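Before we proceed, please read the two lines closing this message. Report back on whether the structure tokens fit the sequence:
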Amino acid sequence: MGELIFLFILVFIWLLAASISDLKKREVPNWLSFSLIVFAFAFRLFYSVLNADFWFLLNGVIGFGVFFGFAYLFYYGRVFAGGDAKLLMALGSVLPFTSSLYQNFFIFIVFILLLLIVGSIYGLIYSLVLVVLNTKKFSSEFMRQFKTKRRLFLISLIFFFLSFIFIIFIKEISLFVFPFLILLFPILYVYAKAVEEACLVKYVDVKDVTIGDWLYEEVRIKKKKIKPYWEGLNEEDLELLKKYKKKVLIKQGIPFVPVFLIAFSILIYLWYSSPEFFNFLWFS
């Protein structure tokens, strides 16, 4: 287990550094993610050669491959930004804890579920803090979004009544929660849009803008148009902005890397405090 403790400490240090960077600068330097991959594989290779156990190295390669797939899916599904996706790949080289492929895949699933659950709670709390700090702007933006999305509320109201009548007709009381979830959806959507517009869109000095930052609106410089892209600003666009603009409107994201740290900490806690949680599938 000593080899795992080393990997755990390594990840904690890297995730802590990445979290601080994300909270302060809204970015995770590439060298952090790439160096974690290098250190994790270097240690796995060293341990494998020393103990003639090349499964330890191979499991790291498999984990990296699996999380490369998750990172690709989350990035192009616009769930993660580039820095978050690269960090997820790096964690794939660490997360295989055992020599069993079956159990390692279960660990992967548990971590992804923790990431999504913790991320949802964290995002809600973070957004509520932003709302409290920007109450006036949020209130006016929420009302504006509410008025512009009236059709969405009308559609959800129609589906609410239809589903409610259907549940009464089939006499399935346990399904009564679903009509209310339908009704809740447009409220959450308007809330999220209001938080984004009122709390996350800001004018930023061009000197503080970095590669990967998201433009909020199209910027025209002479005959060139710099359009907002999910991938963020590239080096060429940034050079143009710094040459001709003093400030630009940037859409900031919620710093998500602390979620990685929290989810990984919970995973390690479960690993040591409740090993039966990871072994319950071994009933045969």
About this structure: Residues 203 and 249 are 4 Å apart (CA to CA). The chain has a mean pLDDT of 85. DSSP finds eleven helices and five strands in the chain. The first helix runs from residue 2 to 25.
